[in-house]
Structure formats: structure tokens, C-alpha cells
Amino acid sequence: MGLQLKDVSKFVGQEVHLKDISLHLEPGSRYVVLGRTLAGKTSLLRVMAGLDRPSKGTVVAGGVDVTGVSVRKRNIGMVYQQFINYPSLTIYDNIASPLKIHGVPKAEVDRRVREAASMLHIDHLLDRLPAELSGGQQQRTAIARALVKDVDLLLLDEPLVNLDYKLREELRDELQKIFGQRDSVVVYTTTEPSEALMLGGNVIVMHEGRVLQVGTTTDVYQNPANVKVAQVFSDPPINFIPVSIEENCNRFGEDLCLPPTSEIAALPKGEYTFGIRSNKFSLFDLGEGYFPITGTVGLAEINGSETFIHFMHGNESYVVQEEGVHTRKVGSRIAVYAHPGDFYVFNKAGNLLVAPKHGR
Amino acid sequence: MNKWENNRAWFLILPVFIIVAFSAVIPLMTVVNYSVQDIFGPGQRFFIGTEWFKEVLSDSRLHEALWRQLLFSGLVLLIEMPLGIAIALMMPKKGWGSSACLVVLALPLLIPWNVIGTIWIIFTRPDIGLFGATINGLGIPFDHTASPIDAWITVMLMEVWHWTPLVALLAYAGLRAIPEAYYQAAKIDGASAWAIFRYIQLPKMRGVLTIALLLRFMDSFLIYAEPFVLTGGGPGNSTTFLSIYLVKVAVGQFDLGPAAAFSLIYFLIVLLFCWLFYQALQAVGTGDK
Amino acid sequence: MARIDLNEIKHSYKPNPRNDDDFALKRVHTTWDDGGAYALLGPSGCGKTTMLNIISGLLKPSHGQILYDGKDVSSLQPEQRNIAQVFQFPVLYDTMTVYDNLAFPLRNRGVPSRDVDARVRKIADTLELSADLGKRAAGLSADAKQKISLGRGLVRSDVAAILFDEPLTVIDPHLKWELRRKLKEIHNEFGLTMIYVTHDQVEAMTFADKIVIMYEGEIVQTGTPEELFERPEHEFVGYFIGSPGMNFMKCTLDGDFARVNGSAIPLEEGCGVRASRLGTDFKIGIRPMYTGVFATREECGNAPAFEGRVLGVEDQGFCRIVTVQFGGQEIKARVSDSRTVVDGACWVVFPADKTRLFFNERLVG
After folding, report:
1. Do B5 and A68 touch (CB under 8 A)?
2. Which residue range or ranges hold the ABC transporter domain (chain A) (predicted)?
3. Could you tell me which CATH class the domain A239-354 is placed in?
4. Chain C closest CA to B199's CA: distance in Å?
5. Domain that holds residue C256
6. Dist. CA C129–CA C148, nearest whole Å
7. What ipTM did this prediction achieve?
8. What residue spans of B1-57 are helical by DSSP H?
9. Is the pTM of this model over 0.90?
10. Boundaries of CATH 3.40.50.300 in chain A?
């Protein structure tokens, strides 16, 4: 059963929470909703679940209009950021609760509860209370409870954000495997681009209540439709350089003028914004076609196996991500190499014109 | 089809609707009815429009009762709010001590209101009352049946004793909701106890205190049983508050017309203040993120 | 500016602790140098917040002492210790303006208002808050609020150390970069000792010069990000640092080789022979970054290569994580995003200089 949203908008008083959202979600697929806080991700989930009614537009599940249908009648499971479990019930009863409400026979309840618990590695904790468990285990219980019913729609609202870094990594791995086995539509919200990339599937990029782009994760990552999508979907932040394309060169500020690549040469003259991801900048001249951009080092951050160097070129600050450990003194001159083929080109309105070729 | 399937919910509230209709709405309509008629006896009624309202509003004794009432409510709030907050600040936050304090505080709230009036009559009697006898024994003449000042003092003491616990309990709940980190940060900033109160506790209790203010104002403005039992409105008229005066007019003089008009005006005054407080509560609520 | 010594600190929240489990901090004995940037890194419940509260004075250790510049401050209250603390969520005085918030600690200490003004403006400038000075603090964004919390600490000129308790928790990812940079700049400019508690290794590694890894109430290793990455002294450090963590495989020793399910993986010279005296419970560890995965034997060059099977590939934007079946278990390898890796048979390379040997969870080679 797929899910469709047609022209959904939600207003609360003067505030626009959602605007003109139309989505088509296929069964058995995964969708990560990526956006900053207050982008409308939670509002979107609530409308999908039936917890909120959209001010305009319709929600269609499996061909049936369910816009006004209360969430109790819909077949959904939802997991929240705060590990929400019934505090006075044991883990077993917590996971069993949706089945008991629907009057499933006891033997079947027992089988499904144990199956869900073992999938999430909490089968040894079934007779404890939620308060006795760690954060990660409580969240696993909440996830098990959402999975134990055969739901059409599984919604997860930043479920890992309150967990430790390492725990997040592990659960993410497990969740990927679990999602792969199901037939339902899975919608997962997050503010972290790296999480969207790690979960894979499809991504829905949101900003200020609107959907900016929908597509497979790799596709959207490699071809962001506009500047906003590129900004939201990058970690470390993507570097933007204002460039004016002139007769025979691309002018980067006053001092840099470079011969364009074939795609860029085809563009009309004018002002553009070029974008390049930090890992495409290199501290080393990698040979043919690479040109240097000089700047002053602002800060060098070492991340164990990688270095992030923040530097200033003119009035703009940029980040270069390089493998290995490299120390640079603050205030020293630095030359950073880039290849014209690695640039994204956005026009004045912010829309994507040229994207780097995959596999560069 | 765009229909919410909440119809079943209406059936669940229907009994309440019916009860409220019978016990409140219909009597209210009756009062409105009486307020515009002159009633001499059953069957003899004349519609006189807003006559009663004009008469009531120009009644000087009503004005006096109104001023007394406002003074009373004002004093009540001035005393009870700070006192309640102070008690809440002093209460232990954890352990058996906090449970014990909560129980002791709640006791005055559980006593029937006319019983409270009776307790305080006896308590302040100059001959056998603990308080009355002690004060008189110290040489200070104290008799709430004779002196208006003494009557006011007694009524105020009784009211404060009765209702400050409510303010204290609400304030306590508000205090408990403040995360520990604020106190830690204030400690590190070197803030004095007064600064902590002024900049952390009071602002964070804003919502709860507004509710307390609203409740206490409404209740004190409508007060009837305790002062009536205690002083009957006397000596003279010195403790005749609005509701006591209203009952005198309605029941004592059996003037249903003016009493009904009076009730409506009373109702509207309370409604006005409630609306003002509600607006204030909304403004506080949004500023309190 | 303070040197902080922790002498035999143990802490239990229970009044009568009986065994090890009752202690939140089992034994901490270490020194932190003046002006350094340290991170306390560990999973939830490892005791890092307890440690931070002992350093700041919000908690008195049940055993042991803490010294600032050689002076015992174990019984001193936080306000007497010249420290500042920034909490997980912004802690502000809602009713005051940004200016008043920053001025608060100084006014409490009776600093004359002209000095207060100069100091507040200077700090506001450093934190890029000058434009917001007149605004009410409650109305600003989360990152601005955290900057104000930080500013309240910096504004006191006598402050010796600033402690951070997971301060970037409520901040959006794209603003975390800016704030981290700001913290580093402040560290460079003011030269204060800064101690940062987190469970996020990226934050710890980018912020700190030295990282203290804690696990179950004890310090497991202290070192620079590089040291922790290249030479983790404990399996936990190998697992906790690095995304994904180190690959561990049980092995037996055979001269200078480690045998995993028959395959002989080369170790650094002499290390295998030295370690064989210790016993038999060994594991080798190698980071995914150094684990090589190739499609053909030729691409592996001269290095010993082993057969494996690629089970899956995840695209992470700037790199790819490959899950490989080898020696009866799953290991991960990290490859550049410009390489395409397909499912199926593959060849795995473990460079000897990056392969570490562990005995009883501790590093031996």
C-alpha cells in the first residue's frame, strides 16, 4: 500500500508549517526526510500518520482517501525522539500492546513479540520495566512495538538523536537491515546529511515547510536541484564561490581566471555561483587540470584520520577536507587545488545547471 | 468525504451537557427572566425592562459592598501570593520531609468551608478561644463581634489560613519543574539567593503563578460561607461582602427582581476579570519558552 | 589558566558503597596541563559528567582530591574555583537582555560598571553577538543562546578553566561547524584550559589536543586524536574511535603472522614473537580505512592478499563503506568515493604496519 500526498498544506494561525506538498511513496521503499529544525519534518510525519489534519490537500493510502481518518483506524507505527514506552508495563507487554488492542490470539502475540524482540536484540530483557533499561534499549523497545504489527506505514521521527554516537551507528546498521525486510513505506526524519547518506534509499529534502527535492539519495546528493538543497545536504558545509563567466574564462574574484570545461563553456556570460564539496578540494596538486586557489589558514581541525582546514580567500571562508593528518599554522598561506570538473554551477536564481560527473 | 470520525465522542459528553444545562444554564435563564420583571407574587408579574438594573447600580449600599469586596480581594492577593511562594521556597524538595509538608499544607483545603467559619469563631472568642483569650490576656482588646477592624483581621486571618496552601502547592509544582542546570549555572555565576529567586525561579514560575492568581481572585471575589458563618456580615455592615449583600437582598428581603439583576451584574464583573486574566495568561504562555 | 590534578579520585553516589559497581568513578588519577584543550569522551554512563561535576565543584568526590595549580580545592564551591560551565541546553536568564546576561557574573562580583561594559563588549565582539546586545535573550536561536552561555564564562577575567557538558547537543549540524570553529578560536585567543565532555568522537577529535577516553568509570587512554586512532591501547578505544570502529578478529599467533581461520595475516616485525609468551587469547585489529578491498589479485600488488566476499556497499558521499565477509565474520572497509565496488568475490589486504595485536583487550603490538 503506497502513500500519496496531494497539495498538502498546513497552517497554524499565521505560521506556515507545510506548503503545497505532493509526494508519492512506494510500498517497500525507504524515504529519509532531511531538513533543518523547524523545516516541517515532524508536521509532515503527523499529517502522514493522521495525527493532524492538513489545512488543504488530501492524503491517500492504498488508493483510499484517508485525509480525515483518525490515526487509530490507520495501520501505522510511529517511533519518537524521546523513548516513549508505557512506563508501568514490562517490555513484553509494551511490545505486545498494539496486538492485544486488536484482539490477536495469545499464541500469535507471543510469537510475534519474541520475533520482534530478537530482531532488535532485546529478547533477554522482556520482563523488565522501561525505567530499568538504558536509552538505547528503551528506543529498541519503541521500535519493536512499532514493528510488531504488520504496518503499511512506519514513521520514525529522528529516533536516534538522543542516543550516543556509537549506539547510533549500530542501530542505524540494524535498522537498515530491518527496513530492507519489510513491505511497508518507511519514512525517517533527520537533520544530519550523513545519516541520510548512511540509510540510503530515497531522500526528501525539506526547507521552511516546502519540499525542495525528492529522489534517490545518491542522485539528490550528486545533483542537488538548487543552492538550498546543496546547503542542507552537505556535511561539512559545501563551499560556494561567486563566479562571473566571461569571454574566455571563469573569473573567481579578482585574481583568478580559468579556462572553462566544455559544459561551462556552453553557458551564457553572467554571474553564477559555483559550489564544490570540501573533499574535492585537495592540499596537493593532483596533476592535469588542477588549479590552485590561495588563501589564509583560519583553523585546522584534526579528526583522527582526516583534517579539516578552514581558510579564507578574499572575504569568503572555505573548508577543505583531506585524508590523513596535516597541520597548518593559523595565518599561514595555503594553496588548495581544485579541478573545474568538480564544480557545481548554479545560476543567479540558485538552480543547478551543471553537476560534476559521477566517478570523478 | 471530509468528516472526522469523532461523533462517538459527543455521546460521551451528552450526560454532562444535560446536567450542566439543568443545574446552570436553565437557572441562569430564570435569573435573567426575573431580572427584567417586577414580581409581587405568583402570577403577578410585570415586565419592567432595565428598571432593576438602574436601581441596583445606583444603590449606595451595593457600592459600599463592592468597594469592601475589592479591598478584601486585593488584600488577599497581596498577602497570599508572596506568602505561598515563600512557603513553597522553604519546603524540602525530596524525601519524606516533602511528603509530610505536602500533607500538612493540604489539610486546611480539605475542611468544609462553613466548618472553617465555625473553627475561627471559637478560635477568636475572647473568653474561650486560644487566639482570642491569649491576645486579650496580653492586654490588647480584641473582639471581632464588636470592632470592625478586629472583624476584618479575623476574616483575613481565616482566609489566608484557608487558601494560602493552594498557592503554595501550585508554586511548589512550578519550582519542581525547573531543571537543576539553572541552579548550577547560577552558582557558577556567583548569584546570590535573591538573584536566583528574581532571575530564575520567579520567571520560570510565571505560568503557574498566573493560574494561582486567577483562581484566588475568583474565589475571593465570590466568597460567602466563611465570612457569613464567622461574622454574619457584621458588626454592622463592616464585613458585608458582595455575595453576602446579594443574599440579604434576595433571601432576606425576598426581592427577587433586584437580586436577579444584581446576580447578573456580579456574574458579568467576574467574567470580565476572568477574561482579563486569561489574556494575561496567554501572553505569559507564549513568552515563556 | 590552571593545572588540574586529580589524585586518586573515586566517587560513589551511594552513602555506603560496597563493591566496584557502586562507584560511578572507579579510579581517576591524572594531570591536565595549563591551557590545554581536553575532551572527555565516552559512552553514556561512563562517568564523564560525574568527572566534570567534580572538576567544577558541583560535586564533592567521595574519595581523593582535586588540585588547581597545586592547591587543594576539593571542598571549594564552584563560584570559588574560577571556573565556568556550559551545559547541554542553553541556560539563560530569560528576563534579561543579552548584555545583562553577559554582565551578570561580573555584577555579582561587584566589578565597577565601566569595566563591566568594556569586558562585555569585548566578549560580545569575539562571539559575534555585538548586534544582539540589546535584545532579550529568550528570543534568540539555540546557537546564539549557547554562545551567550559561553560568554558568561569568558567574561570573567579570573576564569581559569571552562567546562563544557555536551554543549552542541541542541545545535543543528550546519551550525555545529561554526560553533566548533568559534570554540577553537577562543581557545587559541584566550589560552584557557578547556575541558569538553561528549559522546561524539567527531566533536572530541576536532576540538581537543588531548582526548581522555572513559569507560565504566575509568580512564582507558589519554592521547592525541592521532595516537588514539593509530595506537589504541584498549579494544574499547579501537571500537569507539573511528567511524566505523576497528575491525577485530580472533586469531592465533604463528611466528610473525596472525592466523585467522587459516589465513596468515602479516604483523609488524618481531611483534608476534614477543607476544606469544603472553598466552593464547589474541585478536587483531585493523581500521576500515586501512583495510584494502580490491577486485583482482593484481591490484593488491606485492602485499599478501586474501579472498573475501563483498556483501554490500554504502555510499556516504565522500567515501564508501564496504561490508566484506572474511574469515567467517563481517568486516568493514572504507574506500574513496571515486572507486566503484561490486558485490561478489574480492581480495582483502591488511597492511602489516596498520594491523594491531591485542591480548586480553589490551594492545601489545
Report:
1. yes
2. 3-233
3. mainly beta
4. 6
5. 244-363
6. 8
7. 0.75
8. 7-20, 26-35, 51-57
9. no
10. 3-228
